[in-house]
Amino acid sequence: MIVNSILDTIGNTPLLKIPLRGEEVTIYLKLEMLNPSGSMKDRMALSMLNHRPRALNKDSADIVESSSGNTASALAMISAVRRINFTALMDSHASLDKIRTVRAFGSNVQIVGGGDGVLATDIRDREAMRISCEEGAYWTEQHNNPANAAGYAGLAAELLDDLGPTITHLVCAIGTGGSLCGSARQLRTRIPELQVIGVEPAGSIIFGGEGRDYLQSGTGTPEGAEVGLAIDYGVIDSGRKVSDRMAFSTCHYLAQRHGLLVGGSTGGAVYEAFSVARRAPVGSRIVTIVCDSGTKYLDTVFNQDWLSIHGIQIIDIEEHFKGLIADAPRRPQI
């Protein structure tokens, strides 16, 4: 296939079936890390820029966004193609690879907040508002932008094309809420009985509870930050919390048993998908969205020194879900 722009390669990502014992329940992973900037955020970033207010729709207009990295990478990629000046406001919680990616696309990065890996969503957002008000840049404001959720209509359509109305559960990490709520809203038009489960890090406040620090990147809402309007609690049936240890252990399982490198937020979602599969009725089809690639976390989630510094011990997920997870299929050597 020949395309005229890298933006034409956004979407149409494949599904990976994860084998479970007996195959009475099936889990499918939507491989969104195969989008061109490496995450599902390409969909919503393109949607937000395509739906800019008409008065700000000149390609020369500056844009700004507060991001842990994936939205910033997506906006930087699109800005490079469309020759837009983009500034990403990031903090030390973001992986170095994400920061380097934004700069590689030619966009500006400003690091705000404290050091030592502190997540500073509220500080980033305040600075974005200041730049928008004082410098006239367009703040895409992903947490409150309706074009965020609208950007995932195509993802839902692809799932329906591949699986039809047989999907019983949608299990997805929740940060801004755009991917989960946008996809769920569209899927429910064909599957009214769909069970929608949002997964946040233990310590995030989206589904209540006491806020505390967490290490999963690009997901959840830390204490002190505002839960955005993109989260539609009306389409979510339940919210679950997954610890960093279980999320990262699942990342290691997927890498070492399925050759699939994913980020921590996806690890949390897949862990919860396994938990759902344990109690789901026979015939259930569970879909989980792979938010981004683990290649962005080789210095963190897949770095034993980093894990040790943070006191995280990786567990054996196959043993933890003993009796559920089947061995990955082996192909004969040629």
Automatic annotation (TrEMBL):
The keyword Transcription regulation does not apply. The keyword Chloroplast does not apply. Coiled coil: none annotated. SUPFAM superfamilies: Tryptophan synthase beta subunit-like PLP-dependent enzymes (SSF53686). Residues 7-292 form the Tryptophan synthase beta chain-like PALP domain. Pfam families: PALP. InterPro entries: Cys_Synth/Cystath_Beta-Synth, P-phosphate_BS, TrpB-like_PALP, TrpB-like_PALP_sf. Keywords: Pyridoxal phosphate. It comes from the Bacteria. Its cofactor is pyridoxal 5'-phosphate. This is Cysteine synthase family protein. It comes from Paraburkholderia youngii.
